[in-house]
Structures are given as C-alpha cells and as structure tokens.
Amino acid sequence: MALMRKKQRVSGEIPTASMAxxxxxxxxxxxxxxxxxxxxxxxxxxxxxxxxxDVPQKNVMHLIIMPNGQVRVKxxxxxxxxxxxxxxxxxxxxxxxxxxxxxxxxxxxxxxxxHKYMIDVLDQLQLAGATRIxxxxxxx
Amino acid sequence: MMRQGGLKRKSKTSSEIPSSSLADMAFLLxxxxxxxxxxxxxxxxxxEIPDAEATKKLDVPRKDVLxxxxxxxxxxxxxxxxxxxxxxxNIVGGLGAENPTLKIxxxxxxxxxxxxIDGVQQELREARSLYLTxxxxxxxxxxxxxx
Lengths: 140, 147
Fold this sequence. Notes:
heterodimer; A: alpha/beta; Nucleotidyltransferase, domain 5; 5-stranded mixed sheet; 3 helices; B: alpha/beta; 4 helices
C-alpha cells in the first residue's frame, strides 16, 4: 500500500526548453511558404503611333485567330490557308523562318476571341524564338 | 600558504549554452519578418491568368511597374480605380511623364474578348508607353508533352 501512494511529481512550471524549437519551426515554415509575387509574362514592344512600316507581303506570316481558338495561317500573298491549332504554330514558324529570315508574324485576332487564344499563339511564337511580332485586331 | 584553499576556489561558470533566450530570439525574428512584410496595395480582382510556356521573369524594380487589370467583362482597373477605356491613355501618359522607365504589366482575364486588349494597346500607344508585358503564369499541365 505504501508503494502505491507515492507522491505525484508533476512540475508546476511551463516547459520552456522546447519553446525555441516551436518558434524556429514557425519561422522556417513562414520562410519556406512565402512566395514572392514577381513580375512575369510575355514581353512585347508596341509600335509607336503613326509608324506603319511597309513590309513586303512575302515576309509576312498571317496568323488569324478565330473566336473558337482555331488559327488560320496564310503565308505572304499565297491564297491557300491552313487551319491549325495553336500548339502547331511553333513548328510552323521554325520551318518558315528557316526558309526566310526576314519573316514577320502578323497576329490578327478576332475582336470577340478570348484573350487566352492570343496568348497561346504569342506563347508559341516566343517559344519558337520569334522576335518580330505584330499584334493587330482582325478587321472584317 | 595559509590562504591556499580560499584562492583556488573551483570556477562555477556553466559549460552549457544558455538556451532560455533562444525562444525570445526566434520570436523576435518571426515578429520582425511579420512586421516588415508589405503587402501589395492593389486588391486583386477576380481574374484568371492565362498560361504560357514562354513566360519570362521581368527584371525591373517594382516602382517601375504599372499594373493594368482587365477583368472578364472588359473593365479596366489601374491602382484600384475603375478607368473608362478612353481615359487610360491620359492616366498612363501622366504616370509615364513622372517615370520615363515605366513598364506596363497587363493582367487580363483569359476569357476577356480581344477587343478590350486591343483597346488598351491603342491607349498605351497613344500614351507612348510601349513596353508591355502580358501577365501569364507558367503552364502546369503535366500531361502536356515536353518539347
């Protein structure tokens, strides 16, 4: 009986030894989970006002973006158009650019087409290394 | 020789690193970072950012960047203010006069019709602010094949 009635030895203090661990854990957690909101995107330089440059038609690749996201590709003066999806444009551009180094991409977007389809085409062109890109609205 | 025992007293310096102030230091750091964090002024609109694989980081100081927000219905917001489309060139032109190295970041919803994007572009040309970035996020479609 005497053995069972041992006095309880619970300390009345709050343990402070692990406090530093908790604080550092919080600190490291916030350091790791912080994401810096950096500026990123697709960069482009707009042409100045009233600075229309005449480009020979043979150096232009017309990319006409339809409201449903399909792209009509027409090269220069040739009348035959191809319907492609945005994903094919990078390869198309590389092929055409290999044949003609003065090539300019004229991206004409339908006024009702969602913005993302224009971004898709611009993305493909920039992936393929195109630097001379002209963004225009599609006039009927 | 009489005082020998008194002089050679055992040194009582503790060999342990004091850890009782460690928590205070850690919390101090934590509070420092919490207080020194600044959040961006603009409240984000409900905008879905389009994806693009060719997304590049824009290396310009934050003070040289002006955000133009275009939401799904084609409303243009600059510095938390709704700007009617014809006034965009005045606003951007005024800010561009104060800061000639101003770069524009256009945060447009992926579904907004292109007419509004074209409208903003024309206004920017009018304001002679020609460095434009279309804000995009890096594509995260895993099933897309790598090129």
